[in-house]
Amino acid sequence: MLDLKGYEWSLAEGAWITLQVALLSLVLAMILGMLGALAKLSPYRWARAIATLYTTVIRGIPDLVLMMLIFFGGQMLLNDSLYSANECLITTSLHRILTMSGRSIYRIILKLARSWLAS
């Protein structure tokens, strides 16, 4: 058998905190990712420009370098908040996914509207 020498409660508490941080990071990342995708698809030129600048800078930096910059460099600015570093990484990934899926959904909606108006 596995003997945890009385650390069962500490391990369970650590696992619970980890799950809470992961779920909160996911929720916040989805919100920020949706905002980024909406800005990218926005009819306003200034919103698209900010989203394009953000996307260009983030895509120009390799992912591993970006993770290290956010984790090590950002920790000093974010007062040792590991949650904020994880949130930034997840938000960047979700922004990319939602922007691409938003464009394809937008095209499908346009095609449906055009075919409906044509009939």
Main traits of this protein?
single chain, 119 residues, mainly alpha, MetI-like fold, 4 helices, 85% helix, elongated
How does this structure look, described?
The protein has 119 residues and is mainly α. It has one domain: Orthogonal Bundle (MetI-like fold), CATH 1.10.3720. 85% of the residues lie in helices and 0% in strands. Helix 1 (8-40) crosses helix 2 and helix 3 crosses helix 4 (82-118). The relative contact order is 0.12.
- Beta content comes to under 5%
Helical fraction: over 70%
Structural class: mainly alpha
Instruction: Estimate the mean pLDDT confidence.
Output: 76
CATH classification, class level: Mainly Alpha
| Major sheet summary line | none
- CATH fold-level name: MetI-like fold
CATH superfamily: MetI-like
Report how far the terminal alpha carbons are from each other.
71 Å
**Low-confidence runs:** none
Whole-number tally of structural domains: 1
From the alpha-carbon coordinates, what is the Rg to the nearest angstrom? 20 Å
Number of strands: 0
Overall 3D shape? elongated
Element order, helices and strands? HHHH
In short:
This protein has 119 residues and is mainly α.
SSE order and pairing:
Elements: H1 8-40, H2 45-60, H3 63-77, H4 82-118
